[in-house]
Amino acid sequence: MTTETLLRLGSFLAILAVMGAAETLRPRRGLSTGKGRRWFANLSVAVLASVLTRVLIPILPAGVAAYCRTHGLGLLHLVSPPPVLAWIVSVLVLDMAIYWQHVLFHRRQLLWRVHRMHHADLDIDASTGIRFHPIEIVLSMLIKLAVVLVLGPPAGAVILFEILLNGCAVFNHANVRIPLHVDRVLRLFLVTPDQHRVHHSTNMREANMNFGFNFPWWDRMFRTYKPQPDLGHERMRIGLNIFRDREYGGLIRMLTIPFL
């Protein structure tokens, strides 16, 4: 197991454990489905997606970044900015790329069919942050590799971004109650659970807002920001209207959603 994999896995498990405990102690909303079954299914699909991706795409983004450095490939190698600036630009560009990828998965019908498995969760909590169809994870990895190849970022910056992405995905899906005055300040720098929860509304006008995963600036910049759901966080419905049957919470039925 590579150093990058160990760093990503260790930080991910730590954040998942912390947020899982936090949302149990201070939940934002009551859950409508059993947490044990959902967590088992969501964790299972995450493991399946990770294994499939490593089999189909054995190279990691940091490996592509190292290759770019060796061969002088990528935009950053052409302009040669100071190392600190290269790290900052790399993390910001990668995060903006993930934002636009997310927008694309909502606006293109074939991609939406794959992505809607993530939205079909009838509740939203930390485990929803890793509930993505294996097809989406493979496509996301290919897009990420392409961005790294074009940009030529430092390998360390890519690893940092991967850790941020995994951690923030768990954090901003968590069903944790954060004081409103803290949330107002925090969402200036990070996508908060209250901000991202709007994106999981059954109201598709709301579900097509708040696409950011790490940083909240892209939604504000590209006018896809909605601060609060129309019905409030306690009354808003989570999920998709076409997948309300709880059988779609099981692993096998989850995997069939893109083909229905």
Automatic annotation (TrEMBL):
The chain crosses the membrane at residues 6-27, 39-64, 84-105, 141-165. It comes from the Bacteria. The keyword Repeat does not apply. Its main location: membrane. It is found in: Membrane. InterPro entries: Fatty_acid_hydroxylase (IPR006694), Sterol_Desaturase_Related (IPR050307). The keyword Protein transport does not apply. One of its GO terms (biological process) is lipid biosynthetic process. Residues 87-224 form the Fatty acid hydroxylase domain. GO terms for cellular component: membrane. GO terms for molecular function: iron ion binding; oxidoreductase activity. Keywords: Membrane, Transmembrane, Transmembrane helix. PANTHER family: STEROL DESATURASE. This is Fatty acid hydroxylase superfamily protein. It comes from Pseudodesulfovibrio hydrargyri.
